[in-house]
Amino acid sequence: MAVEVRIPTILRKYSAGAKSVNAEGSTVRELFSDLEARLQGISSQLLTDDGGLHRFVNVYINDEDIRFLGALDAKLDDGDVVAILPAVAGGGSGSPLVDRRCG
After folding, report:
1. Pick from 32, 34, 35: nearest CA to 52
2. Closest to 22 in 3D by CA, of 39, 8, 4
3. Which of 9, 38, 45, 58 could form a disulfide with 85 if both were Cys (CB 3.0 to 4.6 A apart)?
C-alpha cells in the first residue's frame, strides 16, 4: 500500500531534506520497516531497542493518533497520510529554552 509519510524537520536529515516520502506497509510497523530500508537510520529515532514506539514520538494516520488505532499494528490503506511528530515539552521556569526577557 502506498502511503505518504510526513517527516518532521528534526528527522529530515534521513530524507535528504524531503518534507514527505512515499513508503509501503499494511501496518505502521511494516511502514516503519520500509522507511528504514529507504531512509537508513530513521527507525532508531522512532522505535526503542525492543521495537516499541519511543515515548516522545507521536504518529498520526489521517490526523488520528495511532495509540487509539492499534499503535504499531494500526492498519494502513492505500493513500493514507502518516504524520510523524516529535513530542514537545518544556516551557517551565527551569527550562533553558525560556526567554526570560519576555516577562
Report:
1. 32
2. 4
3. 58
- Residue that wins the pLDDT comparison between 32 and 89: 32
pLDDT digits (tens, 9 = 90+) for 69-98: 999 999 999 999 999 999 876 555 544 434
Pairwise CA distance, residues 10 & 19, whole Å: 11
d(CA 81, CA 15): 16
pTM of this structure = 0.82
Amino acid at residue number 43: S
Q: Which grid coordinates belong to 72?
A: 504499531
